């Protein structure tokens, strides 16, 4: 949150559109055998042999999805890739390529875009995906990032949202609510900074939750793990809008009901302590916070022995007949209907 | 340019993000056999068997790429699809799917987005492509449209920018410069309207060039025609930034030079008459105007007899050794070096 007034500022107009794309993508290496031709022609060319191709796309808008007063551009570039790859993994697929387009106003110097693309490149390397195209244009205000992610999957391995059956178990990877609480801490520190710019915040107690907000990871490991465990989920979705919203998607598309057990919801100790500090209910945060980028899936009960010992996976619920509805079973053993709070970003 | 003050205005917040996507895409039909799963899961799923997959993406930004004071939203939706499909045809491929993401501020009512999606759907139907995904989000200002186009092509049919050889012929489809001159007319009428909103402009003499600006078409027919004529271009690109810029791309990537003949450049009579009216040189417009979405390609001389009688195609130049450079050969038989003016949208 401390601006370096001496940083170098090269205006974007010094490069022009073609020069800018070339400059920003010159280090990007092709790693996937399915990439025949990457950046540099009218379109990229890919070859998936007989595999299924999966495609997903997301927009990230400054002032809506991120706040540059605390999101470093490198982390933002990283996150913009990760949130899209998460959708590919939610199909039980392997991510192979991305396209990245940005619209940016002239208030951003070249060095800012270099930082952004540094994060994009870092994510592309860590997740082993090729950057195969994109568009770079000016905007009248702010920064917007549009990423399309492409992946491949054997036809018999793909997992949709609509295959959950009554009696299936509901499983989630990792833990929930941390990204939301990280955002609360960052928003609070931003307000403190506005009042006193010399205040140095102690963010040490919040390192995990802040990292989950600013630099989340997608669960590339889970489709691989499931294959190793010989478990094919009956339905799968990634947790981007909050657990309750994702459960509702699976239940609606699979035409099933669900009991979700409050006591089973995996929470990091930092989430619990920060929720206490902010006087927010941690279950509400897990249900409605979002941006966890964990995978939520259902499995047949017979597969339970295969996953029960795995520290990455937690059984949090039980699928029921559609007519029984969706409920949170609380620690006090009361049943509360699950409603989506989701991310409503068109509120006026 | 006349606003209907009585039009219905439903605020976007009345639907929420999920409701909005569902509402806008509910009529979209799947037409391609390669589309296994369209909108409605974490990602779309496609099956191209052994064909190559081509992917291209573009951003259109309000105030940079379009002006809603004269671009009707339905036309804008149509155009945002067409400009992306053009890149797929430039690979000599068949377009099969698109994703469409929009960021939109609350000043747009639902009815505006319905008009936009009506245009998107119309284009998808006419060009026979499936809308398989997208993202809908709010923006802090204005409208932004991000389209990713997907196509398929047999490996032996794909055409890059880098295959042109000395002695090849340079060929262009259709005519050039019309979209740019249409924009000049629209910009002039906008200024007139500002001064006198009751003035009814007579746009009859400009119907073709205005349509080329507001509702351009991509050359879906050309890859098909070339296949029928048994002509495989050695290099191909679409004319989005202007003829000179596209020639430079082919020459740079193919390591060749080029003589472009001014007298051969195909111009519509409305372009010529409007250029006279605006006192602009029509060759300059064809070279630098852009947004024509015609296909520019090179062919071996031996293929000339196959294309010479076709009214869709005009031979406009001749490829040379790289060291001979790029020149416009004028009507007065002088040689002028070709320089890109292109579309520089980062000018301050």
TrEMBL record, chains A, B:
Pathway: Cofactor biosynthesis; thiamine diphosphate biosynthesis; thiamine diphosphate from thiamine phosphate: step 1/1. Residues 40-153 form the PurM-like N-terminal domain. One of its GO terms (biological process) is thiamine diphosphate biosynthetic process. Mg(2+) 1 binds at residues 57-58, 135. It comes from the Bacteria. Substrate binds at residues 65, 291, 343. Mg(2+) 2 binds at residues 58, 87. It holds the Pfam family AIRS. Mg(2+) 4 binds at residues 42, 56, 87. It is an enzyme of class 2 (transferase). Catalyzes the ATP-dependent phosphorylation of thiamine-monophosphate (TMP) to form thiamine-pyrophosphate (TPP), the active form of vitamin B1. Belongs to the thiamine-monophosphate kinase family. This is Thiamine-monophosphate kinase.
């Amino acid at each position: 949150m401390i601006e370096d007034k001496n940083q170098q500022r090269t205006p974007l107009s010094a490069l022009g559109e073609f020069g800018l794309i070339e400059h920003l993508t010159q280090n990007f290496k092709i790693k996937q055998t399915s990439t025949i031709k990457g950046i540099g022609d009218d379109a990229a060319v890919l070859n998936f042999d007989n595999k299924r191709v999966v495609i997903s796309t997301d927009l990230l808008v400054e002032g809506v999805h991120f706040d540059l007063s605390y999101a470093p551009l490198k982390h933002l570039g990283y996150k913009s890739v990760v949130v899209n790859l998460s959708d590919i993994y939610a199909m039980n697929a392997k991510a192979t390529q991305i396209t990245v387009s940005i619209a940016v106003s002239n208030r951003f110097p070249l060095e800012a875009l270099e930082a952004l693309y540094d994060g994009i490149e870092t994510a592309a390397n860590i997740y082993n995906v090729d950057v195969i195209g994109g568009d770079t244009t000016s905007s009248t205000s702010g920064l917007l990032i549009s990423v399309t992610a492409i992946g491949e999957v054997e036809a018999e391995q793909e997992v949709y949202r609509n295959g959950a059956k009554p009696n299936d178990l509901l499983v989630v990877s990792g833990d929930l609510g941390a990204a939301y609480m990280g955002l609360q801490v960052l928003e609070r520190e931003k307000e403190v900074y506005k009042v006193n710019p010399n205040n140095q915040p102690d963010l040490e107690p919040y390192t995990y939750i802040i990292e989950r907000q600013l630099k989340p990871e997608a669960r590339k490991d889970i489709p691989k793990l499931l294959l190793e465990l010989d478990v094919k989920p009956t339905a799968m979705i990634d947790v981007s809008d909050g657990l309750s919203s994702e459960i509702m998607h699976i239940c609606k598309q699979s035409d099933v009901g669900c009991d979700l057990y409050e006591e089973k919801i995996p929470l990091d100790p930092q989430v619990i302590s920060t929720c206490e500090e902010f006087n927010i209910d941690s279950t509400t945060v897990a249900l409605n916070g979002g941006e966890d980028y964990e995978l939520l899936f259902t499995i047949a009960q017979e597969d339970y022995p295969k996953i029960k010992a795995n520290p990455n996976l937690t059984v949090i619920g039980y699928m029921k007949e559609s007519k029984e509805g969706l409920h949170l079973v609380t620690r006090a053993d009361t049943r509360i209907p699950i409603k989506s709070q989701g991310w409503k970003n068109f509120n006026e």
